């Protein structure tokens, strides 16, 4: 024969306490629920509306919700209008910027054009000067040559004259 011994469940004090706490919490929740239901019923009685269930919404809640919705709608519209205004302002600013940039670019282009013109004019001047210098040099050389030639001729003539004089003597 076998003896079936049933061991008593060993529960620590902490476990017991936990269970008690859980039970209390449950009781508290039930009480709260009961209280809220009763409050709603009382409100309805005061207004004279029929009490059917606790889930139906009261007129005040409906009104409150409606007000909230309307507020949200108004805020949305305001935001939209602000966004539009900002976009328009932004557009105007962008146009101004574009115009400014156009002007700047034009100025830059003109500056570059002037620079190029100046460069070209300088080059031309240099060329002219070089040419002038060359021509001047050439002229001077020619003059010098002519002068030299003249002097040489004169010298030659003098020599000839001298020789003739000597011959005569």
UniProtKB/TrEMBL annotation:
Composition bias type Polar residues, residue spans? 1-13
Q: Provide the residue span(s) of the region labelled Disordered.
A: 1-169
Q: Where is the composition biased (Basic residues)?
A: 15-48, 61-71, 97-129, 151-162
- Quote the biased-composition stretches of kind Low complexity, using this chain's numbering: 49-60
Q: Which domain of life is it from?
A: Eukaryota
Q: Which stretches are tagged as biased composition: Basic and acidic residues?
A: 72-96
User: What name has this protein been given in UniProt?
Assistant: Uncharacterized protein
